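Quick one: structure tokens for this chain, please?
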Amino acid sequence: MASDTVLLHSSHAEQFTGSGRDLLFLDRPVDADTLARITSLQLWAPHHDPIQQLPPIITAMTSLKSLTISGSSTAPSLITQAGQGDLPQGLAELHLQQDYGKVLTWPEVAMPSLTTLSVAGRFRFDNAAFPALTSLSIYPDGPMKVVRQAMDLPLTELNLLNVPNDDELFPLLAQRPLRRLGLLSGTKLTGLAGIERLPHLETLRLKNLRNLADIAGLRTLPVLRFLDLQYCKKITNIEVLNDLEPLRRLTLVGCGNVGLPTIQERIDRLEKSTIGATA
């Protein structure tokens, strides 16, 4: 047992469907050397028997760098009632895959080494808790207050799990020199006007944007190397991709009939492309 480990109760082992993973049981003794070798951990339980509090055994994982809390595996109290020292101070990545249906508030727990945070549902936090955060994936509120707050963090990557506002989006994001951006759901974004305010973007993911039509703004990104377009079925000017000279990798999936023949020569010159359900 070393890196990719799942922590669960032994009575739930048969219900866990993952394969090729080391299983560590909450109700069985584990020696300190084994715990000290774990660097990546997933906390899991079936939805009918969620874990209520952070297992104390986690504090003994002195090498732990990445923690994933699986969807429907825990109660909100696992986060809201956590105290300083309940998580290893060296933790670099935290992934909260569960949406509790209400705003989840981070407790007064500082994570000085955390660089990557992803949260499936609505989230409230104090910037002081994450002073080193460079990558954030979050579900914003309508006025994007949490995004405005996050602009004071040292972010280089931001993923918005919903895009609630069209006009103010790119001026707001321009407050940080973002290199990676994901706009991953929403109905209000119709075009990319204003994205020229983000000249440092190297990676852009546009997914499930149901009304995105005009992608001409991509021409204004001088260092864009990786582009991921998925399930954006109203794009009207896919030929814009022909003008993206820095582009090296392209994913184009589930976008319907966008006119694939018009960019085929450009696709053929890429280092890597993934094309599917797109004509």
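Residues 209 and 256 are 13 Å apart (CA to CA).
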